[in-house]
């Protein structure tokens, strides 16, 4: 009887420390956008446990490349999206809204972006960053299809 009580206590303790249930599996996969000579590629692995790992590689039509390391981590306090553009110190954005195939992360102390939004429309993944630039509201949006950069040579 004592071992059952200990087992039950361990299960309750583990559940108390798990991140709140949020389904982000719809973000997983290889995503790409080929537009006007620019290639934007984003890949998401997971979720496994309370973790997703992402990477973004963008190449301009002039051939200049930039990258961003991404991760989404769940813990007792909820979910946090961490963005590290060009290897700089990661900036946290807390999950403030989620639904079926939509997630909104925010960091009101970060001017641009202050919000990072992902959502699905059918077979497309959309991403949007929002905030303030030069004291005016600003945003940038991407519409990704399934695939990799190699698929861009086949795109119309």
Structure characterization notes:
The structure is a single chain. With 156 residues, the protein is mainly β. The chain has a single domain, classed as Beta Barrel (Lipocalin), CATH 2.40.128.20. Helix content is 10%, strand content 56%. It is built from 1 helix and 10 strands. A 10-stranded antiparallel beta barrel has the order 1-2-3-4-5-6-7-8-9-10. The longest helix has 16 residues, at 2-17.
Q: Find the CATH superfamily.
A: Calycin beta-barrel core domain
Which CATH top level class fits? Mainly Beta
Intertermini distance: 68 Å
Strand content is over 45%
Count of DSSP H/I helices: 1
Written as H for each helix and E for each strand, in order along the chain, the element string is HEEEEEEEEEE
Helix content: 10-25%
Number of strands: 10
Average pLDDT reading: 89
Quaternary organisation: single chain
CATH topology: Lipocalin
Helix/strand/pairing class, anyone?
mainly beta
Tell me the count of domains: 1
Summarize the biggest pleated sheet: 10 strands, antiparallel, barrel
From the spread of the alpha carbons, the general shape counts as: globular
Short description:
This protein is 10% helix and 56% strand. It has one helix spanning 2-17; strands at residues 29-35, 38-48, 51-59, 65-75, 78-85, 91-99, 102-106, 115-121, 124-133, 136-146.
């Amino acid at each position: 009887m004592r071992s059952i009580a200990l087992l039950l206590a361990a299960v309750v303790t583990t559940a108390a420390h798990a991140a709140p249930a949020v389904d982000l599996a719809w973000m997983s996969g290889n995503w790409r956008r080929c537009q006007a000579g620019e290639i934007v590629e984003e890949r998401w692995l997971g979720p496994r446990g309370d973790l997703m790992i992402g990477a973004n590689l963008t190449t301009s039509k002039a051939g200049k490349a930039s990258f961003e390391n991404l991760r989404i981590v769940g813990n007792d306090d909820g979910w946090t999206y961490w963005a590290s553009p060009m290897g700089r110190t990661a900036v946290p954005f807390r999950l403030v809204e989620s639904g079926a195939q939509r997630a909104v992360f925010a960091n009101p102390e970060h001017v641009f972006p202050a919000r990072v939004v992902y959502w699905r429309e059918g077979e497309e993944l959309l991403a949007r960053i929002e905030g303030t630039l030069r004291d005016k509201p600003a945003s940038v949006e991407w519409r990704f299809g399934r695939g990799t950069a190699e698929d861009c040579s086949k795109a119309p």
